[in-house]
Prior knowledge:
The protein is mostly beta strands. It has a single domain, classed as Peptidase G1 (Jelly Rolls). 3% of the residues lie in helices and 46% in strands. It is built from two helices and 18 strands. The longest helix has 4 residues, at 26-29. The radius of gyration is 16 Å and the shape is globular. It starts with a strand and ends in a 5-residue tail after the last strand.
Amino acid sequence: MSFKFFPILGSCYLLLLALSIAGISADSISLTNSSLVFVSNISSLNWSGYAISSTRGSVSDVAGSWLVPTVSCSSGEYSASSFWVGIDGLQSETVEQIGTISECINGTPVYLVFYEFVPKAARVVTRMSIHPGNVISAEVKFDGRFTLSLADLTTGESFTKSVKDSLQDRSSAEWIAEAPSSSSLGILPLSDFGAVFYGHLFTGLVKAQPTPLYTTLSPDGMSFTVLWFRYGP
């Protein structure tokens, strides 16, 4: 069985520059490198990052790490950006995801943890408090139940949510920076987060040193960077 590996370019909202694939290993997605098939870029209005596409029921675990990015907010600005790992969404109507939000509320930067079982609405984890620069590690796993977990390795706080649901596709895995959507407003303006750094080169979960940006994947396949490009149309 082969698994198709997609760089996702947010053609209207995000510009992607990649070092390599984010904070993952063969173990974290229950695949081996030899089973991955790299394919050309695909475009999205509000996603940037990477995804792996496979057959229904074949994806059971996805994990990643990143640094909470700082947002720059102008006076009175309302905008949002989210950073997450998840299963499904690339070729299905459902997504099981967990991550962080960096947004501007009336010009004030706000940083949150969230999880979501699309098509249900996203939920904010109010008992966790995160800050720019904090190291985040997150995982979505399926073993008869979906378990979404996120840890702030800087503060030691963590959150886990488990839901029994065996009806999802489980046909893709994602590591995404997103301009979130509202049911009433559609895709929201994307907060200026500058850059978000995914993977061990930046989070230190594996000892390594940052290297200059490249527009193609580096050989170790472990980290990447997404750069903010513009707010939207």
